Amino acid sequence: MSKLKYEKPVISKITAGVPNKFGLPAKQRIISEIDGIPVPDLMEEYGSPVFVLSEKTIRDTYAEAKQAFETRYPKVQFAWSYKTNYLDAVCNVFHDEGSWAEVVSGFEFEKALSNGVNGSNIIFNGPEKSEEDLTLAINNNACIHIDHFDELYLLIETTRKLNKKARVAIRINLDAGIYPIWDRFGFNYENGEAWNAINRIMLADNLEMIGLHTHIGTYIMVASAYAIAASKLSNLYMAIHRKFDHWLKYIDLGGGFASKNTLKGAYMPGSETCPSFDEYAEAISNAIISSEIPHENLPVLFMETGRALIDDAGYLLTTVLANKRSTAGRRTMVIDAGVNLLFTSFWYNLGVFPSKEVSTHVEESTIYGPLCMNIDVIRDAINFPSAKTGDQLVIERVGAYNMTQWMQFITFRPNVVMIDLEGKAHIIRRKENLDSLQSFEVKPNK
Amino acid sequence: MKITEEIKISDNGFVFNSKTGDSFNLNPFGLELIKQIAEDKDFESIRDVMLEKYDVDDLTIEKDFYEFYALLKYHQIIAPGDPLDFK
Q1: Whether residue B84 has pLDDT greater than 90
Q2: B72 interaction partners in chain A (CB closer than 8 Å)
Q3: Residues B19-67: pLDDT tens digits?
Q4: Cβ distance of B15 and A12 shorter than 8 Å
Q5: Are A302 and A383 within 8 A, CB to CB?
Q6: CATH architecture of B2-78
Q7: Distances (CA, A) of A444 to A434, A436, A441
Q8: Are A10 and B68 an interchain contact pair (Cβ–Cβ within 8 Å)?
Q9: Which pLDDT score is estimated for B86?
């Protein structure tokens, strides 16, 4: 006689909590494969944990964003935000789709050049630009976005030394009706600082002013904030034309579009609340088109969207190491991926899913990473089915920032794999090892 | 290992603790386990019954049993043993 199927014994307390109109999902979602490759196959080949990126999702998301803007505005150009994910394979997909590069440091600038981006197609943002960085940018005819007066004067000095012209735009911070106002980047619009900077640039012999830039914040959930920003930049654009008889080439609205991840403390899931590309595009295009700018002089609209273009394409595959009960009886689970790999777990409730059918019993659980540190919490509270040691889980929407802000701590950073359009997986960043890490170290000679 | 007197267990896995007012749900395997505990069986005999009936190994049974047992104690479903049992 065959034996009956075993299931872990469970007792759960019945609590009458605050009524929740959503309730629990009828069925636990499972992510068993990525772009046609089963999760166990990926983990067997590339280890655990492992980051997996879907080229198809990157290209599809990019196409969606591009279509949203190009159907509403005549001249649009995306520039890939390197800091969001600067793995060469990722950057090259965006460049292949037509994106310029948006960089914020000398290192990123050099990376963009090494990826074959023409220097004149690089936007150089950020508050840190050394004389060496500026020289590199000037020699490559990049668009330098000036962040503050000290940088402006350093740039003037550098162009004099090189006896070359620099193509510049200024970064403008402004009140777009949202809190907090990001006033740390660039020159302020409302108090006239931006206008003063523009006047100084227009008088400089070696500076060619070609654009205006703003970056109103990150994970902006109100599309109308972009409309306010676009309308203020359009006003400056016209003011420059009136005073200097000079048409700028572009307006750059920066990045900051929300991805579909859910912020901690949010009542509704991000996939329900975040504006779509169409909503952002509608707000921005409408504000510029309905400004005073004559149609024949409309600027190119630059977008530096990062997070919203790559987050969905990234997965982290991980393994359950242990199940425990806290002293309060709460179920806790330890997985082999910690906050050192998942920087975004500090502000998102990341989606964690089993990779195969598991128990139908769902219990509120805490998911810890493997680090020997108390802060290593991937999810404080998640309704999760019981999973056994060795079960494989998938964490979704981790494509943005995690692969640039990750830390090498206690263990090695894992393989990063990209699945191409034919459904083949390729390592795009190898797992670190002792030799690779020790190659940076030097023992002093005694 | 004794189920507290105030605990009432229905055949469909509903548990009520009249002392604390708490109620609980058991999955079928949890129900089977708690019934055997109520019959005053010790772990070894419960394990042998389960190994005979279910497709499971002894270590998994042991691990799951003690986790389940800890939860029963936490929810005051199992009466605490006499701390002076050496007397």
Answers
A1: no
A2: 11
A3: 888 999 998 889 999 999 988 888 999 999 999 999 999 999 998 898 8
A4: no
A5: no
A6: Orthogonal Bundle (1.10)
A7: 19, 19, 10
A8: yes
A9: 66
CB contact under 8 A, A6 and B71: no
- Shortest CA distance from B17: residue in chain A: A13
For residue A8, the SS3 value is coil
Distance from CA of B86 to the nearest CA of A (A): 27
Which of A3, A9, A13 is nearest residue B30 as measured by Cβ atoms?
Answer: A9
Which residue ranges in chain A fall short of pLDDT 50? none
- Top CATH class, A125-305: alpha beta
Q: Say if residues A149 and A193 touch (Cβ distance below 8 Å).
A: no
Per CATH, the architecture of A33-52+312-431 is what? Beta Barrel (2.40)
Number of CB pairs < 8 Å for A and B? 66
Rounded Cα gap, residues B42 and A65, in angstroms: 64
Bridge partners (DSSP) listed for residue A363: A384
Nearest to A433 by CA among A411, A409, A407, A418: A411
The answer to whether A33-52+312-431 and A125-305 have equal CATH topology is: no
On chain B, the residues whose CB falls within 8 A of the CB of A322 are none
The pLDDT value given to residue A277: 96
Give domain limits for chain A. Answer: 33-52+312-431, 125-305
Q: What's phi and psi for A237, nearest 5 deg?
A: -60, -45
| A401, A307 Cβ separation under 8 angstroms | yes
User: What confidence tens digit (pLDDT) does each residue in A284-323 have?
Assistant: 999 999 999 999 999 999 999 999 999 999 999 999 999 9
